[in-house]
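The protein record filed here.
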Amino acid sequence: MSSATEIRLASRPAGPQPTLENVSIVDVEIPRPGPGQLVVRNVVISVDPYMRGRMSAAKNYAEPYELGKVVHGGAIGEVLESTVDGYRPGDYVLHGLGWRSHAVVDAETASTVDPDAAPLSTYLGVLGMTGLTAYTGLLEVARSRPSDTVFVSGAAGAVGSLVGQLAKLKGAKRVIGSAGSADKVKHLISDLGFDAAFNYKDGPVTEQLEAAAPDGIDVYFDNVGGEHLEAAIEAANLHAQFEMCGMVSLHASPEPPAAPRNLMKIVGKRLTLRGFLVGDHYGLRQRFLAEVAPLVKECKLRYEETLVEGIRNTPQAFLDLLKGANTGKMLVRL
């Protein structure tokens, strides 16, 4: 390849859902490294729900993407050139400059990954930020116990599917998931071992959760917000723990969500609702890998990937992700 391809933010989304017109695809010269840098040819790049928030200029926990600049996120790439001892051409590295075919990466921000130890894609998913999010949210933040009934919204997604499996592996009394199709519900129960699951499109979430959790829930891992959060508050037992990972339902409507309308029950039930970001827990990464990597290798922890081919299809993959078209981790393979 004699040129590089970049995907840039051309305009900020006017509504909750971005469009293809919000990005531009530009061909440029392959960059050259400076001191302390690597030129990396990306092999696999990640698309994630949090990227929607960064396309807005609104104040958020992460800096907004700049107009006219490349959208960036997690990526695995092959080193083509290096000006740094310890990195050689042919090495594979994890870094944060995705949504482009080639990147100049500061070596101090990259970490080597072993393609022989696990598939490269797993370092962006089950063995990467996705897996660490599930692990820390459930076990470190919620401190889930074997006696707990755990409810996971968006349970067929990259994070949710791992949360449910980890809860089962840790001995949870009952694990319940919500998803957006009959096929996904079947996958949660038949393939991933959830005790119960339901399609949130089939009826009121509160009613479906009550039927799935007749004895209430002790832990709620929230990826959706809105009606799901209201339902979880309704089903919560005293002193239940709510881990707030994301609220993808807010991306789907131009209007603020009507739910939850039962917030006063947080008081009576003495619930704990805690937002968390995986970036606050990177210190647990080695412990996480030591515990989770063997589970993956032994096929005790399953992971799913939705792979899209080609850098130019990245924007559509992102839009599909926001609409729930993925099962497990959404990735683009270059």
In short: The chain has two domains: 3-125+304-333, 129-279. The mean pLDDT is 93. The two ends are 12 Å apart (CA to CA). Residues 18 and 319 are 7 Å apart (CA to CA).
